[in-house]
Amino acid sequence: MGNPLKEFMDFAVETAHAAGRLTLGYFQAGVQAEYKSDDTPVTEADRRAEALIRRRIEKRFPDHAILGEEHGEKTARGSAMRWIIDPIDGTKAFIRGVPLYAVLIGLEIDGRCEVGVAYFPALDDMIYAASGTGCFWNGRRARVAATATLQKSFISFTGAESFEPAGRFAAWQRFLRTGYYSVGWSDAYGHALVATGRLEVMLDPVLNPYDCAPFPPMLREAGGYFGDWSGNETIYGGEGLSTTRVLLPQVLDLLRTEAPHGNAGGHEDG
């Protein structure tokens, strides 16, 4: 008997691809950004891509709830299923013509993220997983890196300016000193790189649920971890950390040497 989650995963892959192709019509084409109340950018591509995703979900799964960055929440009384979507994660990269933005679609069942898809349209990279199926990168099985120490690890992070307001500046500096190589491949791209074995650690001090819903199943199925900076697998911690299971104790030890000062909430990249 097949995994019942595979239907949802296949649907999410098809939907992310369709939304991603839509965004390419605006990419590197002089699209204009507006700025929301939190000063994050939004474009017509964001809104149209989310509308496309929502239409597909509502047609295929009319009884499911939906949470999206641009069009808010649609509740569904009695349903255990909630789709969480970010039509363009990395809008700042998108409006500058940088090809590292993603379409993110996750499915939460009874409060646990069970299906996740991250599609990078400008790279044509698709990374997807569902609980019990494994994690896949363009059809090939994906695994986290086997690196044994942080001293030989590649470490990435989101916007450098976000660490100090979140009370994480000292922790970030310790990672910069400890890792073998540190680089700001930010937003969804950094977390996807961990899931596919190309990075060992991705640090995100400020994160909303729609910025990260695909990552728990992706990292879990690839042999890694996504969650908060205290070791809890969650998308509701206001922060995000992706790493390997081997390195997780070392990462948490490095983080625990400094108590957090609280997060301001909201994601700086839109």
DSSP strand content: 25-35%
Mean pLDDT: 93
Taking pLDDT < 50 over at least 5 consecutive residues as the criterion, the unreliable ranges are 259-268
Q: Tally the beta strands.
A: 15
Helix content: 25-40%
Q: What's the end-to-end separation, in Å? A: 40 Å
Provide keyphrases for this structure.
eight-stranded mixed sheet; disordered C terminus; five-stranded mixed sheet; alpha+beta; 270 residues
Report on the architecture of this protein.
With 270 residues, this protein is α+β, with helices and mostly antiparallel strands. Strand 6 and strand 7 form a beta hairpin. The chain starts with a helix and ends in a 14-residue tail after the last helix.
Q: How would you concisely characterize the structure shown here?
A:
The protein is an alpha+beta fold. It has seven helices and 15 strands.
Outline the fold blueprint.
Elements: H1 5-24, E1 34-35, E2 41-42, H2 44-60, E3 65-68, E4 72-74, E5 81-89, H3 91-95, E6 102-109, E7 112-120, E8 125-130, E9 134-137, E10 140-141, E11 154-157, H4 169-178, E12 181-183, H5 187-195, E13 201-204, H6 215-221, E14 224-227, E15 240-244, H7 248-256
Parallel strand pairs: 3-5, 11-12, 11-13
Antiparallel strand pairs: 1-2, 3-4, 5-6, 6-7, 7-8, 8-9, 9-10, 13-15, 14-15
Helix pairs in contact: 1-2
